[in-house]
Design brief:
Length: 61
C-alpha cells in the first residue's frame, strides 16, 4: 500500500474515501447523498512527535 500502509477507516470497514495523488492524501468527497464517501482515517502506528498540515479546497455549488 505504500504511504497508506497501516491506515484504515475509523470503522475498520473497507472504504473508498481516500486516495493518494502525487504523494498527497485526498478525501474524495461525495457524488450522491453526501455520506457515501466520507470516513475518518486512523493509523495503527504510534507517534511521539508529529506535525499536521492541511489545505482545504471547497467548490461552490
Amino acid at each position: 500500500m505504500g504511504k497508506t500502509r497501516g491506515a484504515s477507516a475509523l470503522t475498520n470497514k473497507p472504504t473508498n474515501s481516500w486516495e493518494v495523488l502525487n504523494g498527497e492524501l485526498h478525501c474524495k468527497g461525495s457524488v450522491t447523498d453526501k455520506t457515501d464517501l466520507r470516513s475518518d482515517l486512523m493509523t495503527t502506528d504510534q507517534f511521539d512527535n508529529f506535525e499536521v498540515t492541511r489545505n482545504i479546497k471547497i467548490k461552490k455549488l
